[in-house]
Amino acid sequence: MIGESRKMKNKVKVAILGPGNIGTDLMFKITKSRYMELEYVVGIQETEGLKLARKREIKTTSNGIKDILGINDIKIVFDATSAKAHSMHADLLGAAGIFTIDLTPAAIGAYCVPSINFDYAILNDDNVNMVTCGGQATIPIVAAINSVADVSYAEIVASLSSKSAGPGTRQNIDEFTQTTKKAIEKIAGADLAKAIIILNPAEPPILMKNTIYTIVKKPDIEIIKESVKKMVAQINEYVPGYRVVMGPILSVDKITTMIEVEGSGDFLPSYSGNLDIMTCAAVQVGEKYASKLLGVKK
């Protein structure tokens, strides 16, 4: 079936809002998709991302979202703008009947982490929110621990290279922490959570690292390790550079786990794992939804 899908001529047409770093990396990933065809890249001003899209013979506009709302063939839109912009885009895309994958921390649609709940999110909402980079990296680990140890409290510290944090990330720091906290509680199942983000200016730039602290009610470390191992294997199906670098380590009832994410280098440098995990997760959801529209079992 996979071999056949690569030869498919009728793919689902999609568009990207926001030709910044995340949007441009999405462009490179989607053009390799089995089920999606990138029809438009949309900005609000002329950018290098739009120029790159045109070089790849992809249609572009710098007039904003209005230019694609009337195109009936576009079935999926990836919003890689900002939380503030998505709050305006969501209603417009919903009214146009376009399935939206939101890569901002706006948290308007259903939270989605592919290794945990994307079947539910796709079936129950036309606007899917990819949480945050810290959320995509840490929620699966908290969920894996909670499934066998009952997490009463989870705290995550996301440390990423300052160079990989563009204007959108910096403008959305407050939304990042709140959205990540809420998603850890709602999706991973922690009774209470806290999220912290650190922008590290080190040279050479560091890989994204996330430290995950959990307080558990059933501290059986061997069972916890096995659950985390299975979860990492699931994530590696769509984020090959995701790995545990320390733990899980047990101290009384506290479990400490550290993971890092190395980017795949499609467009962004490999140290930008924080952005890569978002685009990888979003494309995974897009592939799933597109295959559903095409009637392909995936």
Please work out how many helical segments DSSP would assign: 10
CATH class of the largest domain: Alpha Beta
Strand order of the largest sheet: 3-2-1-4-5-7-6
The structure class reads: alpha/beta
Could you tell me how far the N terminus lies from the C terminus, measured between alpha carbons in angstroms?
8 Å
Provide the CATH architecture of the largest domain. Answer: 3-Layer(aba) Sandwich
The CATH topology of the largest domain corresponds to: Rossmann fold
- In CATH, what is the homologous superfamily of the largest domain? NAD(P)-binding Rossmann-like Domain
* Strand content bin: 25-35%
Structure description:
By secondary structure, the chain is an alpha/beta fold. The chain folds into two domains: 2-130 and 277-294, NAD(P)-binding Rossmann-like Domain (Rossmann fold); 133-271, Dihydrodipicolinate Reductase, domain 2 (2-Layer Sandwich). The protein contains ten helices and twelve strands. The protein has helices at 2-6, 21-30, 48-55, 83-95, 114-124, 133-149, 167-171, 173-188, 221-236, 273-294; strands spanning 12-17, 36-42, 59-61, 74-79, 99-102, 110-111, 127-129, 151-161, 192-200, 208-216, 242-251, 254-261. Strands 3-2-1-4-5-7-6 form a seven-stranded parallel β-sheet, with helices on both faces. The protein has a five-stranded mixed β-sheet with strand order 9-8-10-12-11. Helix 2 (21-30) links the parallel strand 1 (12-17) and strand 2. Helix 5 packs across helix 10 (273-294) and helix 6 packs parallel to helix 8 (173-188). It is globular. The protein starts with a helix and ends with a helix. Residues 1-6 have low confidence and may be disordered.
